[in-house]
Amino acid sequence: MAAATGISFKDLCIDAVNPEVLATFWASALGLRAEPSSDDFRLVDDVPEHTLWVNKVPEPRTVKQRVHLDVDVSAVSDLTDLGAVIIDETQSWTVLADPEGGELCAFVRKPESLSNYRVYEVVVDAADPISISSWWAERYAANVCHDQDRAFSWIDQAPGMPWAMVFQWVPEPKTVKNRMHWDIWGETDDLLAAGARLIRKRDDEIGWDVLADPEGNEFCVFTRHEI
User: Fold this and answer.
1) What's the average model confidence in pLDDT over 130-158?
2) What angle do CA 54, 163, 222 make, to 5 degrees?
3) From CA 28, how far away is CA 98, in angstroms rounded?
4) Which architecture does CATH list for 181-227?
5) pLDDT at residue 3 above 50?
C-alpha cells in the first residue's frame, strides 16, 4: 500500500494537573528520566520516539481515558509502590490508575525478558476498530490486523512507532478531549485530505497543527524542517 501522507510517529503526550507528580510516576514506571520544560516535563531516554511529554492542563480527569498505556512489569507492585491503585485483577493483566486517576494496564513478564523501556503497547478505545485502525495504517503505510471475535485491531511496524497501537471496541462515545495523544511528523494538508479535521492551526504560540482523526482522537502534526 502506498503512503499518501508519508507520516511517521514522533512521541506521546499526557495531560496532567500536577505534571511533576505524574512525570515522577511515569518516568519510574517506563524506565525514562524526567526533564523539566517550563510548566511541563519531558520523559526521555536515548531513543527519541520513547519521549513522553507530561503537559500541564487546568482540567482534571473526569471520565475513563480513551487512550492508555499497557506496561511491562516484573510485578504489579512495581507500579503500586510508585502510587498506582489497582482497579481490576480479573483478567490476565491488571488494570490500575496512575496518581491522577488515568487508567493503565500491567503485564507481568519474566525479569530476563524486561527491557529498560517498559511500554508494551498503546491502546485506543474505538467505535469502529476496523475502520479507524485501517485509516491510521494507510496513513503510516503500515501493517494492520483485525481480530473480529475479540473486537480489536492493531497496527504494527509503523514508521518510528516503537510498539503496536491497538484499537479496541467500546460502547460509549467519545465525550471529552483525550488526556493522552500522539504527535507525528507529516503534512497537515495530506491528513486533512484523507479525512482528518483541523482543531487548531499553528500560530505564534504553537509550532504545530492540532488535528482529530475520523473518530475524534486528537493528534499533533509537526513538519521536520521547522524543528
Assistant:
1) 96
2) 55
3) 12
4) Roll (3.10)
5) no
The domain defined by 65-176 carries CATH number 3.10.180.10: yes
CB-count burial class (<10 Å; 0-12, 13-18, 19+) for 38: exposed
How large is the average pLDDT for residues 149-175?
96
Sign of CA dihedral 47, 194, 169, 221: positive
What is the grid cell recorded at 68?
492508555
- Asked whether the whole model's pTM tops 0.85, one would answer yes
CA distance 82 to 99: 9
Residue 84 in grid coordinates: 498506582
Ordered by start, the domain boundaries in the chain are 65-176, 181-227
**Whole-number Å distance between alpha carbons of 110 and 121:** 17
Residue 73's nearest CA partner among 115, 108, 122 is: 108
Report the alpha-carbon distance of residue 215 to residue 127 in Å, rounded: 8
